[in-house]
Design brief:
The protein is mostly helical and about 110 residues long. The protein has five helices and no strands. Helix 1 packs parallel to helix 5 and helix 4 runs antiparallel to helix 5. About 35% of the residues are buried.
Length: about 110
């Protein structure tokens, strides 16, 4: 059974992972939602193609650090190994289904 500390670590990991880096960088640089340009994927690859390689690398690094930070946080707090692994997993879930983007990874593609 998970304790309150473990649940708090998992919630923090989810929120860390859900920070929408690609969305924010594209809004800042293009003034557009990255989910509406290119392949509509809010990730580093689409940012590289649509905004620029340097910004794609920035998004990649920040996204990687989100997952690393979640795992390191769980380790520093001395949680069980299962919670440490779970922190990495829920950080990825937060990245893919961000509540800040209404849990939607990509906008629907409309056929012409």
């Amino acid at each position: 059974m998970l304790g309150i500390e473990s649940l708090a670590v998992l919630l923090a990991a989810f929120l860390l992972g859900s920070f929408p880096t690609a969305f924010l960088v594209s809004k800042w640089r293009l003034g557009k939602d990255i989910r509406s340009v290119g392949n509509r994927n809010p990730g580093a690859g689409n940012v590289s193609r649509e905004v620029g390689m340097a910004f794609g690398i920035l998004v990649f690094i920040v996204d990687a650090m989100k997952g690393i930070s979640a795992v390191v946080l769980a380790q520093l707090l001395g949680t069980a190994d299962a919670v440490v692994y779970g922190a990495g997993f829920v950080a990825v879930l937060g990245h893919n289904f961000s509540p800040f983007l209404k849990f939607a990874a990509a906008k629907e593609r409309r056929l012409p």
